[in-house]
Write a structure and sequence with these properties.
By secondary structure, the protein is of the alpha+beta class. The protein has four helices and six strands; from the N terminus they run αββββαββαα. It is globular.
């Protein structure tokens, strides 16, 4: 039975289970020590809101909206304008994550998720649109994109001043002060 032909109760159960699936996967990453901090702020039928802190980024709010079929992480790059050179470079970086020449274990399947950065008042947000309802893949891919954003884009990129001035990194090391 297709999703549109499901009785309403079955659709609600499916949506609730998807939010729960995302929560369990994120919790498994937190239990493994991938996040510096992880809190479930809200977990409802169609919305999950999580406070997540990666080792090198400040706490950010991750919203998973099953009805809209999207993940949004606010302030992935705090205090970065979408029109700045760094903002443009980040958009290109996200496009390159799905490139055919990227190793398959590090490539994001663009037929399953669409990745984009979005300007917000506090900086750039990261948005994933789930295109095939595979929330297991989308959750794991989202975490991978964040890891790549930190280690490949932010730490290996030419953003020394941003790391030191905006994120508070020790200028002599790659750790937070």
């Amino acid at each position: 039975m297709s999703a549109s032909n499901r009785p309403e109760k079955t659709t609600q159960t499916w949506r609730r289970s998807k939010v729960g699936d995302v929560r369990r996967i994120l919790q498994s990453y937190a239990d493994a020590g991938l996040f510096a901090a992880f809190t479930v702020t809200q977990s409802a039928r169609t919305i999950g809101i999580f406070a997540v802190t990666w080792r090198y980024l400040p706490c950010a709010t991750l919203t998973v909206d099953v009805e809209a079929e999207e993940f949004t992480l606010l302030h992935v790059l705090p205090r970065v304008s979408s029109r700045s050179p760094m903002g443009r470079s980040y958009r290109q970086f996200l496009i390159n994550l799905s490139a055919a020449d990227r190793p398959s274990h590090r490539r994001i399947d663009s037929s399953k998720v669409k990745i984009e950065s979005k300007a917000t008042r506090g900086g750039l947000a990261l948005r994933f649109r789930v295109t095939d309802r595979d929330y297991d893949y989308a959750t794991r891919a989202f975490v991978r994109v964040l890891q790549e954003s930190i280690y490949e884009f932010l730490l290996d990129g030419p953003y020394y001043d941003y790391r030191a001035q905006k994120l508070g990194f020790d200028p002599d090391r790659v750790t937070l002060q």
